[in-house]
């Protein structure tokens, strides 16, 4: 599944779509989008900023472009992950809201909702409200799954000791009005650096 090729492949013309839909029976189930396209559509609709990268070099280049765009120095961004500290030249520190942004990983990317599934492995025992307003999440395409239940099952199988503080973040536009589905969630300005790994 080359994410970029599928994303930018040639779209069907309106007449092709009309012909296909007239050939399909009204009793056939609707065709589902692939998980990667479903995630991208829902994620951007939720207000997330998506950056596709083919290599770790592109990931670091795009990270520094995010800093430049927001006029931040690397001293204003923190991570509790030693790999990210080395890759992005960040200082080691506990996560808290005194910084401009935090760089974290994630457990999974949920296609059906465009949400990011996190656990204590990424955010410790912090609540989302205790983190900076901007999150920069690094993930790979192999972390894309369709449903949150699938992610929870994978977490259970993946770890000998199940991590605590399992949560999702789904609202990425701090300017949008709350609706009843996102009530109580903490909106975050979110950049996703998604690297192709398949």
Secondary-structure-derived class: alpha/beta
User: Helical segment tally?
Assistant: 7
What top-tier CATH class fits best? Alpha Beta
- Could you name the CATH homologous superfamily? NagB/RpiA/CoA transferase-like
- Biggest sheet: strands, sense, closure? 6 strands, parallel
Fold and architecture overview:
The chain is 32% helix and 20% strand. It is of the alpha/beta class and 198 residues long. It is globular, with a radius of gyration of 18 Å. It has a single domain (32-174, 186-195), classed as Rossmann fold (3-Layer(aba) Sandwich), CATH 3.40.50.10420. The model is unreliable at 178-184 (pLDDT under 50). It is built from 7 helices and 10 strands.
Give a brief rundown of this model.
With 198 residues, the chain is α/β, with parallel strands linked by helices.
Notable features of this structure?
single chain, 198 residues, alpha/beta, Rossmann fold, 6-stranded parallel beta sheet, 20% strand
Summarize the topology.
Elements: H1 3-7, H2 14-23, H3 35-45, E1 49-53, H4 56-70, E2 77-79, H5 82-88, E3 91-92, E4 101-104, E5 108-110, E6 115-118, H6 120-123, E7 134-140, E8 144-145, H7 148-158, E9 167-169, E10 189-195
Parallel strand pairs: 1-10, 2-3, 2-4, 4-7, 5-8, 7-10
Antiparallel strand pairs: 5-6, 6-9
């Amino acid at each position: 599944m080359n994410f970029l090729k599928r994303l930018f492949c040639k779209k069907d013309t309106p007449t092709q779509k009309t012909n296909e839909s007239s050939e399909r029976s009204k009793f056939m189930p609707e065709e589902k989008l692939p998980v990667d396209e479903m995630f991208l559509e829902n994620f951007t609709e939720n207000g997330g900023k998506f950056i596709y990268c083919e290599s770790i070099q592109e990931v670091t280049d795009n990270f520094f472009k995010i800093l430049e765009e927001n006029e931040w120095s690397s001293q204003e961004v923190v991570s509790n992950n030693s790999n990210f500290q080395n890759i992005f030249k960040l200082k080691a520190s506990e996560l808290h809201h005194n910084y401009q942004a935090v760089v974290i990983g994630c457990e999974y990317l949920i296609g059906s909702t465009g949400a990011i599934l996190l656990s204590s492995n990424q955010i410790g025992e912090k609540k989302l409200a205790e983190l900076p307003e901007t999150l920069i999440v690094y993930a790979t395409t192999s972390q894309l799954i369709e449903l949150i239940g699938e992610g929870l099952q994978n977490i259970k199988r993946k770890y000998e000791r199940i991590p605590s503080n399992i949560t999702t973040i789904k609202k990425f536009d701090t300017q949008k009005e709350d609706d009843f589905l996102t009530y109580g969630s903490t909106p975050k300005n979110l950049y996703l650096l998604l690297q192709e790994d398949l």
